[in-house]
Amino acid sequence: MVVTRIAPSPTGDPHVGTAYQALFNYVFAKQNGGKFIVRIEDTDRTRYNPTSERRILEMLEWIGLSPDESPVKGGPNAPYVQSQRLSIYQEHALRLLESGAAYRAFDTPEELAAAREEARKAGLQQQGYNRRYRDYPREEAERRAAAGEPHVIRLKVPLEGKTVVHDLLRGPVEFDNAQLDDKVLLKADGYPTYHLAAMVDDHLMGVTHVIRAEEWLTSTPFHVLLIRAFGWEEPVWCHTPLLRNPDKSKLSKRKMDTSVDSYRAQGILPEALLNYLGTMAWSMPDGREIFTVADMIEHFDLRRISLGGPVFDLAKLKWMNGKYIREVLSLGELVARLEPFLEAAGYAHPSRAYLEQVVEAMRARFETLGEFVEKAVYFFREDYPVQEKAKAKLEEGRPFLPELRDLLASLPDFLPETTEPALKGFAEAKGLKAAAVMQPLRAALTGSLETPGMFDLLMILGKDRVLERLGKALG
RNA sequence: GGCCCCAUCGACUAGCGGUUAGGUCACCGCCCUUUCAAGGCGGCGGCAGGGGUUCGAAUCCCCUUGGGGUCACCA
Which residues of A are known catalytic residues? Predict the structure, then answer.
């Protein structure tokens, strides 16, 4: 059975890169009737963020990539949090120690830093650990360890030869073992490094396909060596391109908004975000750009992932979100998505029917749910802001607006069939262009010059409010 | 800098030896129009460069250039 996983580190906000990786891993697993696991890699206590794990897990539920096994869901491979699996890694490290594939190293962090600095000054091409303890007497090492001396356990990487990583997308990638160094497997605090923990867990959890970001490619030979040291079978390696900032560097929160929570707060729809991520380095075989995760599962092909690093383009994300708002979601669904935003903004509405009318009228005019809140204030409050340009327009209308108000007051109803001929007739009678009448009226009624069509506006606002607002504006 | 990966319009991509190099976003113009959008139509714009291979290269190979990643007791 196909088993995939993502292994996020709980160090901060749920990252779009995590969502991106989750998407490919999820889709590939589902396509093959396999399972998708989420494992929390919290082995770095210095970067640990206590709310991060919960938020990452919630983020996955929000975008609809629900894992088959996870810390909250549990599963046959529990626990799914690495800090709760420490003894497992320690046992495995010991095993490697016994077989001679690893060794204890007693360098202090200061010594390592000094050695690195020295190597840098000497202009050495070769970087990495100097292997000071690689051939240290075994008995001596054990004695010092038994005495409680702090130390790490490192993998004994072959000094010669090549290690080939067979990447699904790239084919064989060769690394000279001489270029590798003896990476730390178990830190002095007893926690494993990513290298040990990830490979042990992937093996124990039956992960068959490691689909992860390209930044891992250069440490894969090390993983291959580690797996061989244990005598296990390698998974299929598939390194996907990194999402990029507009300047092409690796997507980072310094240069871009990388927080899924932030996009959610702005009113980006989960299905739009997922759809957009699905177009990053991948495309539907038929070229369609709007598709669901289900569509993706049906047509996905890991081998069709392209290797150029895609720039995460907010403009296109927003366009796609707008596409979902105006064409994909049903009106009812859209209204439901909008409700939490309205509540947060303190917007009241008399009825569901009213809300639906407003949303329908506004639909083509906002691309995020947050934008709706900004652009539709005047449908929900009487203290809506009045823009400067609107004020000017209002002045232009002052000569005829009182008369127009009387005309509107005399109408039997505010249906478009009634208001349209009335307003157009009014303009004509005054020898004015329709716009010359509509714009000042629009300004008076909404404080804005950018609104839905006048006749929809009049109908939705209703006679009472229209007359009231007009009176107030002319006041 | 060493090592590794990558390279089609500004951005996302289709292309997998023979295409007028297609689509989407953005941008520009026109249409629609009471404003702003949306929508429709049209336009601008690309195979990084140089060598090969081949009857024929965006497609295959090499070099150069460019971009990215990685070189932690972080993941």
Answer: 253
